Amino acid sequence: MGFDLSFALSTVPTILGAIGTTLLVALISCLGAAGIGFGFEMLRRSGGLSGYAVRFLIDFIRATPVLAWLYFLYFVLPFYGIRLGALTVGILGLSVYFSGYLAEVFKAGIDAIPKGQSEASRAVGLSRIDTIIFIIAPQMLRNIAAPLGNYFVSILKATPYLAVLAVPEMLGQAFDIASDTYRYAEPLTVAGILFLLLALAISQAVKRVETRLLGSNRR
Amino acid sequence: MREQSPDMATEISGLNKWYGSFHVLKDIDLTVAAGSRIVICGPSGSGKSTLIRCINGLETYQGGSIALGGVKLGDNAKETTLARRDTGMVFQSFNLFPHLTVLSNCTLALRRVLKMSRRQAEDIALHYLEKVRIPEQAKKYPAQLSGGQQQRVAIARALCLSPRLMLFDEPTSALDPEMIKEVLDVMVSLASEGMTMLCVTHEMGFAREVADQVIFMDQGRIVEQARPDIFFGAPSHARAQQFLEKILH
Ligand SMILES: Nc1ncnc2c1ncn2[C@@H]1O[C@H](COP(=O)(O)OP(=O)(O)OP(=O)(O)O)[C@@H](O)[C@H]1O
Ligand SMILES: [Mg+2]
Question: Which among B98, B141, B161 has CB closest to A124?
């Protein structure tokens, strides 16, 4: 039984139909992970008790498998009366899990900014928040565009974990077809190619943003 | 431009600062009268930068007091912030914001702190960029400018907020020799317009020309304070003599 091209093509619409879910999960998880990770890093920098707590939390997150987060949020939280939908849990789980890594990336990006930048910002009277928004964050993003893009691709590649919650993302759909038809090669190949294309598109987009950032920021 | 009146003086009295157990500023008393121009010199590590960083709040201190225009720093958070807004700072390493154009470097604080409209802020910024003789570079990024040009932008950025006191920390010592003059020229014309200036520099020609007081610091103390003709003619302190000999070759 060889690779049946016409069967493969016939699976494309179903699998492609799930691309919306995959992209939605990936996109919101990227934003969520970046937001939580940046918040973690700011708290860590502020020192004090919350700084220590966040330090511990980041280490804890990085030491747990992503599946553990998904199971915990989906099966354990309802036990405490918090019932979330599968899609929400999936997005939340990926966001929390990757926020631990992104916090480290943000840290490196901020550490690379000369101390004189925040001093000059304070000297012209900008508030702490304005200094973060207008001085630190833009320079940080320029410093970390490449690793940040890599993590966004990693988040995309982690979306199939949501299959354990029966969220209809691309790989899950492919697997459903496979178990219905007992033909694995075709649907899984199609899903693989679609993931590859998405990942390439994201890396290209990141590269563009990176050159634009660097282009206007020559030091 | 705001009027300079005597009560706008900066008063530093009994200032003491420690870094851990290291006593970096010792009993500093200094009055910077409105309109005066004071040059601070002294060997490396004597506390010159630390002193002016205390004045604009980049460093904390443990003893004594600093009052800007009658407002004692630290008494009231809101007043302190407002008083600090009256000081402009120029750093040795320029510290321009590399991701913003020259114009945006100058307008950012006007827009965010003083809540001005873009047009209003740009008008003010261009006015000061003209003053430092660099208006044609407004759309460029800092990295596209020479060191001397960058430092002049940094001066314009500080001037935009109409400070009553300008603080300079070795503004020319990171510059190539051929660029020092263009920056000093701008500072001389600022002085001639009556700006109050406190300037750490080893440019003794500048000190002779514009300073009405020269301060010599050593090991955290103000060792000597005198008019430039007296300071350069016959410094009374041995450490100052040695320092001058070294610096004037
Ligand atoms: N953050 C800090 N922690 C500990 N010690 C410091 C710190 N900053 C400065 N110092 C020390 O305080 C002393 C005074 O430093 P400061 O920078 O004020 O000297 P300076 O007179 O400006 O010297 P220079 O001419 O080299 O700029 C130095 O001995 C320096 O090592
Ligand atoms: Mg210094």
Answer: B161
Q: ipTM of the assembly?
A: 0.91
CB contact under 8 A, A134 and B58: no
The fold of the A5-217 domain, in CATH, is MetI-like fold (1.10.3720)
Task: Report the nearest atom of ligand 1 relative to the CA of B47.
Answer: 18
d(CA B199, CA B210): 11
Q: Is B30 helix (H, G, I), strand (E, B) or coil?
A: strand
Structure confidence at residue A4 (pLDDT): 87
Distance (angstroms) between ligand 2 centre and the Cα of B50 equals 7
Q: Which residues of A16-40 are buried (b: 16+ CB within 10 A; e: fewer)?
A: eebbebbbebbebbbebbbebbbeb
Closest-CA residue, ligand 1 atom 26, reads: B44
Six-digit token pair at A85? 């939908």
- CA angle at A142 for the pair A139 and A147, rounded to the nearest 5°: 130
Phi-psi region of B27 (alpha: psi -120 to 50; beta: other; left: phi over 0): left
* Whole-angstrom distance, CA of residue A36 vs CA of residue A61: 12
On whether the CB atoms of residues A148 and A102 are closer than 8 A, the answer is yes
For residue B220 the two structure tokens come to 């955290």
Show residues of chain A in contact with B98, CB under 8 Å: 139, 217, 219
Q: Which chain B residue has its CA at the smallest distance from A130's CA?
A: B112
Cα A134 versus chain centre, distance: 24
User: What predicted TM-score, i.e. pTM, was given to this entire model?
Assistant: 0.88
Fill in the amino acid letter for B91.
F
Asked if A120 lies within 8 A of B58 by C-beta distance, the reply is no
CA-wise closest residue to B106 among B148, B146, B160? B160
In this structure, are residues B56 and B87 in contact, taking their beta carbons and an 8 Å threshold?
A: yes
- The string of pLDDT tens digits covering residues B221-240 is 999 999 999 998 888 888 88
pLDDT band, residue B241 (cuts 50/70/90) = confident
Q: Say if CB A88 and CB A24 are below 8 A apart.
A: no
User: Can you tell me which atom of ligand 1 is nearest the CA of B217?
Assistant: 21
- A123 at the B interface (CB within 8 A)? yes
Q: Summarize chain B as % helix, strand, coil (round to 5).
A: 40, 25, 35
Q: At what angle do helices B147-159 and B102-112 cross, to 10 degrees?
A: 20
Q: Does A117 touch chain B (CB under 8 A)?
A: yes
DSSP A159: G
Q: Does B98 touch chain A (CB under 8 A)?
A: yes
Taking the CA of residue B124 and the nearest CA in chain A, the distance in Å comes to 15
A127, A142, A219 member nearest B143 (Cβ): A219
Asked if residues B215 and B240 have their Cβ atoms less than 8 Å apart, the reply is no
- Picking from A115, A124, A213 by the largest number of B CB atoms within 10 A of its own CB, the best residue to mutate is A124
Listed by start position, the domains of chain A span 5-217
